[in-house]
Amino acid sequence: IPVSVICFPQQNYPLYIRSIPTENELKFHYTVHTSLDVVDEKISAMGKALVDQRELYLGLLYPTEDYKVYGYVTNSKVKFVMVVDSSNTALRDNEIRSMFRKLHNSYTDIMCNPFYNPGDRIHSRAFDNMVNSMMMQVC
């Protein structure tokens, strides 16, 4: 089952990309970049409510024939996008929400590292392990 996790800062360049299987990575890039427009639309539609809101899960951004694209935004406007196979009907909304929370917590740990420069690509073994375990859970 294909899964992809990508993190974007406000400037919309990827900080972290992980795909299983890796041969469809270019297709995932295209899918995710098109979903960023939907993320921006949802954020602007929420407007002030998003600032006051603790829940930053955007839900299903859009389904395609093959994939479902989900989104999440942090308070600092870092976007997480997850692409899962449409045929995976066992995956519920609360499980996706929980995975985004884990992703956000791991991202926060990276930001707290004094040796990490914000805006650099993420190269962290702990973050990789967390994403890999999350992806194996989905597959």
UniProtKB/TrEMBL annotation:
Biological-process GO terms, alphabetical: endoplasmic reticulum to Golgi vesicle-mediated transport
Keyword Transport assigned: yes
UniProt key word Cell membrane: no
Key words, A-Z: Cytoplasm, Endoplasmic reticulum, ER-Golgi transport, Golgi apparatus, Transport
Primary subcellular site in the record, as a coarse category: cytoplasm
Top-rank taxon: Eukaryota
One cellular component (GO) term of this entry: Golgi apparatus
Subcellular location: Cytoplasm, Perinuclear region; Endoplasmic reticulum; Golgi apparatus
Coiled-coil blocks: none
Similarity annotation: Belongs to the TRAPP small subunits family. Sedlin subfamily.
Protein name: Trafficking protein particle complex subunit 2-like protein
